[in-house]
């Protein structure tokens, strides 16, 4: 069996495994949804709390409206969407497992075939005998072994990163969920004094739900960026116009928080080739951070200038400095700077990590400097000229 035949057999075999994975994912999805549906129905039918919640919901919404919803296409669409989500989950697990298995299987087979070639008597290897083919093959083996060691280390790092991600996400999601469940329990058990206190509880539940939505959205965006799943449509983009529109969008919020935003742009055209919908997220995040943490001086400075063959955009705020020990890690996911830097704010810890990834997608660079006077985020983007290809 040659190395080429090994690779060909592996490719053909993986196709059948993928078909098997699809079938298994469909079966497991149907079983899972059946179990979940029966569990929910059983809970509602047997639990006093469950039946009480359903009764309260029907009373609150109205029996006629509930019947209209039940006989509308929405339940069917929800069921199909649920099946698609569960199917995607199972198939993703299968795909990741199969991808990992096939990857290491291919390398193991390649190494085995190479070792067979090394030990072949046709080479006539003996101490002191040097054959150019043997030397090249030995070097190839060493390269394969080195590559495998590197890949195993990357796998361990990826596993550690995944574990850290799960731990951080679990912690960040648990906190607002605990609050939501706690206050909803008070509401359902009528443990409030008057309508004012009830409204207070509802406001807290809404606030925590909004935070939960933001956490999930940021996590989804970060995952898409890291897995290169974003569709990037790069076109010539006027940086000055984009920043001006961004400041105008934040105008009301700036006035409400009594901030002054100073804009300073160079006179020459500042055009870069970028996806405007992605790049605007970078500066939205930087401006939002400036509003959160620039508490010592109600001022934000935004500037854009040409620097060599690049465009330099700087967002400056005047809050407490970022500690020097935190600066090297500021763009890492879930990294939180000491809360003493500013007012207590709840965030996902993914904003700057997403911003850094988006800038790197555009072959740019993002940096941060902070001292007692100010904190400056600098974004470098490639200058687009008319001679460049669109």
UniProtKB/TrEMBL annotation:
EC numbers for this chain: 2.7.13.3
InterPro entries, per the entry: HATPase_C_sf, HATPase_dom, His_kinase_dom, HisK_dim/P_dom, HisK_dim/P_sf, HssS/ArlS-like, Sig_transdc_His_kin-like_C
Keywords: ATP-binding, Cell membrane, Kinase, Membrane, Nucleotide-binding, Phosphoprotein, Transferase, Transmembrane, Transmembrane helix, Two-component regulatory system
Keyword Disulfide bond recorded: no
Transmembrane segments: 16-36, 43-62, 74-96
Enzyme class: transferase
Gene3D superfamilies, A to Z: 1.10.287.130, Histidine kinase-like ATPase, C-terminal domain (3.30.565.10)
Membrane topology recorded in Swiss-Prot or TrEMBL: Multi-pass membrane protein
GO cellular component: plasma membrane
All copies of domain Histidine kinase, residue ranges: 168-385
GO molecular function, one term: phosphorelay sensor kinase activity
Catalysed conversion reaction: ATP + protein L-histidine = ADP + protein N-phospho-L-histidine
Localization terms from the record: Cell membrane
Pfam families linked to this entry: HATPase_c (PF02518), HisKA (PF00512)
Record PANTHER family: SENSOR HISTIDINE KINASE CPXA
Protein name per the record: histidine kinase
Organism: Psychrobacillus psychrodurans
